[in-house]
Amino acid sequence: LQECILSGIMSVNGKKVLHMDRNSYYGGESASITPLEDLYKRFNLPGTPPESMGRGRDWNVDLIPKFLMANGQLVKMLLYTEVTRYLDFKVIEGSFVYKGGKIYKVPSTEAEALASSLMGLFEKRRFRKFLVYVANFDENDPRTFEGVDPKKTTMRDVYKKFDLGQDVIDFTGHALALYRTDDYLDQPCQETINRIKLYSESLARYGKSPYLYPLYGLGELPQGFAR
To answer: What is the mean predicted confidence (pLDDT) over 180-204?
Structure first.
């Protein structure tokens, strides 16, 4: 994928690029394998896909699965190189968290947030204050810090400042900032605030979810840049 992006950006800037690939498909390790039969071959699985899985061509299996943030760096590069002409994107319908034996939708609108049982009424107010703070936060403008030092204050202290409870902290750290562990709590808050900001800005772009996904799998990305 890196090489494909580089060759795309270089060609947009008037350079001549020779693009070579050792496989019969684009993207190397970040390809999407289709049809299903090819996936079986690639991983030396015995036999053929069962009939219950339908047509092999209906599948695109990502070797490195991930979503794109609607306002993230990669989407900006896609727009800059106009690779978007070769791609169809789909907005992910919604994301969910599992908590205390139940599955909850991560709220994506204010109405959903107010109706969500992920947090109580007073929590929601405090959380909203916190989100407004994050939206206004600008690392180049100390007036937006409100007594927080982005390079020194830990995220744990920022949560304390807004009096957020454990449930909200879990939800924010893992469903919005997308951390896998809680190590981030004792690190300077700048990175986390920027992650939550990216999530919110991405959500604002398409309104349903912050995540985009190429319609025919992530393998479309290297293919688009290579074209």
So the answer is: 95
Phi-psi region of 140 (alpha: psi -120 to 50; beta: other; left: phi over 0): alpha
CA distance 81 to 60: 24
Co-location of 123 and 86 in the same domain: no
Count Cβ atoms below 10 Å from residue 111 Cβ, excluding itself. Answer: 9
Residues 6 or more apart whose Cβ sits within 8 Å of residue 104: 96, 97, 98, 116, 117, 118
Question: Does 152 share its domain with 76?
Answer: no
And the tokens for 192? 């986390």
In terms of DSSP bridges, do strands 211-214 and 102-105 run parallel, antiparallel, or are they unpaired? unpaired
The 10s digit of each residue's pLDDT in 42-86 is 999 999 999 999 999 999 999 999 999 999 998 998 888 888 999
Write out the residue range of the structural domain in which residue 217 sits: 1-93+212-226
Of the two residues 151 and 225, the one the predictor is more confident about is 151
Pairing mode, strands 89-91 and 211-214: antiparallel
108 shares a domain with 88: no
Residues 149 and 67 both lie in one domain = no
